[in-house]
Design a protein that fits this description.
This protein is mainly alpha-helical and about 60 residues long. It is about 45% helix and about 10% strand. It has one helix at about 5-30; strands at about 55, 60. Strands 1-2 form a two-stranded antiparallel sheet.
Length: about 60
Amino acid sequence: MQKTPDADLLREMIGFAAQRLMELEVERQTGGAYGDKTPKRLVQRNGYRDRTWETRAGTVY
């Protein structure tokens, strides 16, 4: 895909959707959102690593 404003928007949308889906999965598995202190929490989160993701629309950070 060429470097156009449309491709930039598509990469941002892919990145946002993927990040939100991953956050929802982690929240479900841990029993709470990041930073929440609730008695329902099952475990603690231990940070993350920045990674790039190569897609047809380009690199998603």
